[in-house]
Each structure stands twice: as structure tokens, then as C-alpha cells.
Design a protein that fits this description.
With about 325 residues, this protein is of the alpha/beta class. It is built from 13 helices and 8 strands. It has 2 domains: about 140 residues, no CATH class; about 140 residues, no CATH class. The strands form 2 sheets. A 4-stranded mixed β-sheet has the order 1-3-4-2. A hairpin with a 4-residue loop joins strand 3 and strand 4. The protein is globular, with a radius of gyration of 21 Å. The protein starts with 16 loop residues before the first helix and ends in a 30-residue tail after the last helix. About 35% of the residues are buried.
Length: about 325
């Protein structure tokens, strides 16, 4: 029987804001001079928007744009889901609406951004999803009934692999091999998330496990530093935001495919996997949930990151099915 525990950002707000904002301002200013034509390949096709595009972003640009914090602990709506650039005309025709322009968002600090999202959500119907175009800083809302924008791929979220590929010279530090019981409880502490099951708690996975998660249509939705450095209530809102977004994707549709969230300990990475896919990965031994006995023995329990590729448990082949049901 599986038990759930009921229980970005890469720095503080504005820490990286100066570099990213100055780059955008410098490029914008240069377009007003005689060298404008030299920059034509970098300019947006929509006058008045910022000039950075997905393929020009750095880790600093990304972190600066998605930096977000609660204002005085006043939380009304989950933070927006970071997405790639998309065809605005197609999105608008299908009901999406831009609610905050790029300069307004990029020149606001984390708490001001929280206020902007809360104000945008105040009159939005239930089920509205907010997405943030990282390249431009534009905040868009996807109203109920416009979910095919996500399922069709018109609006596509950023993945963890894409994030790290923004700077191939940066090598993330390996996770610690263990944690104390106090650290375990801190990392798994989550505020209330009505309508969503509490996440599973799993051991860290390495390259083999990550590929198997992908094969089961799973994704890493929150990186360790973006989980461990935010308060429990904001963690709950992150999960709520991704739950709404992922349910629009084909892999997460259907009764057995609702998002199952897993917090990896000791790193703090968070994964979303279709529920049936999660069950299959546990049966395969690809994912190893923490047991109460292991938790009680911390910090003496070491969390290996992977099983050997060929060490599969003896499970009837009929019980394993990594495909999703539409």
C-alpha cells in the first residue's frame, strides 16, 4: 500500500533582475538608432514587445523572468506556468488573452508580480489557467474551453532539460546522499491543495530513472532550488497550477491518467507522472517510494539515484503498460 505524506527560483527576488532587464533595454534602445537593421533578426514581429526570443535566453534571463513571491503572505492564485513563445494570433482566436505586457512584468519585483496575477485572476472564471511567456515577460490567461491550445501544442511549457540547455557550461551539483529527519519533513511540508492528492515521496532518480519517467510521459516540473526555497503554501500553489495545466495534455487525460506528483528526496526535485504510469514505474523498480521505516532511520539511510539498468523485479508482463489511455 502506498502512503502519501500530508505534509526560482535560483535566488531571492531581483537578484538577477539587473542583467536580464538591462539586456532587454539595451537591445530595445539600439533598435531606435541607425543600427536597427543590424538587429532585425533579433526583433519581435510585434512592435512594442521585448526583443529576446527563446533561443537567446540565458539561465539568468529565465530566472529573472519567472522570479515570483507572495505579497505579505496574501495568496489568491497559483504562479503562472512558464511557456515558450507561441503564435499570438492563433492563441487569441482560440480565446487566450494577454493580461500583462512584458515591460510591466519585467520591471516588477516578485511581490508586485504576485499582486498582478491576483488582480488578473480576480474576475477570471473558475478553471482559468495563467501562463508566462518567458522570452517576453507577457502574462496570458487561458479561459475554460480553450484547453486545446495546450493539448494541440500551440502553447508549450518549458521542461527541465530545456532550462539546463540554456547554458550548457553550467553543471548542476549532485544531490546529497541523505538528509536528516528534520530536513525530510521540511522538504515535504506542503500547504493545503484542495482537489489534488498529496504528492508521493520517492527516492532520487538518476539518468536511467529520468529516462524511464519520460517514457511514462512524466516530466520534472519543479527543480530542487525552486522547491526547497519557497514556503509550504507556495509549493501547494505550484502543484495546483501544474495540475490544471497538465490535465489539458493528452498524456494526462482520462480517469487513470490524472497527474501524480512525486517529491524526490533528498534533492527536492518534483515530478509529475500520469497515475497509471507512476504505478507501473514503482512496479518496475524505477521509482522507489520512501517507507516509514526508512524515514525513521534517517539520516542513516542513503538514497542511491538509480537501479542497474537490467535489475528489473519479477513482474508479470501483463501488469506493465506504460502507454496512456486517451
Amino acid at each position: 500500500m502506498r502512503a502519501r505524506l500530508s505534509e526560482p527560483k535560483r535566488g531571492t527576488d531581483c537578484l538577477f533582475k539587473w542583467e536580464g532587464t538591462m539586456k532587454r533595454l539595451l537591445l530595445s534602445a539600439m533598435t531606435l538608432g541607425t543600427g536597427a537593421m543590424l538587429l532585425s533578426g533579433c526583433l519581435s514581429a510585434h512592435p512594442g514587445t521585448w526583443v529576446l526570443h527563446d533561443n537567446e535566453l540565458t539561465l539568468t534571463d529565465f530566472d529573472d523572468t519567472v522570479s515570483y513571491s507572495t505579497a505579505g503572505n496574501v495568496i489568491v492564485v497559483a504562479p503562472p506556468v512558464p511557456v515558450h513563445e507561441f503564435d499570438e494570433d492563433v492563441a487569441t482566436a482560440k480565446g487566450a488573452e494577454k493580461v500583462i505586457d512584458g515591460p510591466h512584468w519585467l520591471n516588477s519585483d516578485g511581490e508586485e508580480r504576485n499582486t498582478l496575477v491576483n488582480e488578473a485572476a480576480a474576475n477570471a472564471p473558475a478553471g482559468t489557467i495563467f501562463v508566462l511567456v518567458v522570452a517576453s515577460g507577457e502574462l496570458w490567461k487561458i479561459p475554460p474551453g480553450s484547453g486545446d491550445l495546450v493539448s494541440s501544442g500551440v502553447i508549450d511549457e518549458w521542461t527541465n532539460d530545456e532550462y539546463w540547455n540554456l547554458n550548457r557550461y553550467f553543471v548542476p551539483q549532485p544531490p546529497p546522499i541523505t538528509v536528516t529527519k528534520i530536513e525530510f519533513e521540511r522538504i515535504t511540508d506542503i500547504g493545503p491543495i484542495p482537489g489534488i492528492d498529496m504528492p508521493y515521496v520517492i527516492h532520487d532518480v538518476g539518468p536511467v530513472g529520468q529516462e524511464e519517467i519520460k517514457a511514462a510521459h512524466g516530466v520534472e516540473i519543479v527543480m530542487p532550488e525552486n522547491w526547497t526555497q519557497v514556503p509550504p503554501a507556495q509549493r501547494a500553489l505550484k502543484l495546483q497550477s501544474f495540475d490544471q495545466f497538465l490535465r489539458l495534455l493528452p498524456a494526462f487525460k482520462g480517469q487513470e491518467n490524472q497527474p501524480a506528483f512525486g517529491i524526490a528526496i533528498p534533492s527536492g526535485a518534483v515530478y509529475a507522472i500520469p497515475e497509471r504510469g507512476y504505478d507501473n514505474l514503482v512496479a518496475w523498480g524505477s521509482l522507489r517510494p520512501w517507507t516509514n521505516e526508512q524515514i525513521g532511520m534517517l539520516p542513516d539511510v542513503k538514497s542511491g539515484s538509480d537501479r542497474p539498468i537490467r535489475s528489473l523485479p519479477s513482474v508479470p508482463s501483463a501488469a506493465i503498460d506504460l502507454d496512456f489511455k486517451p
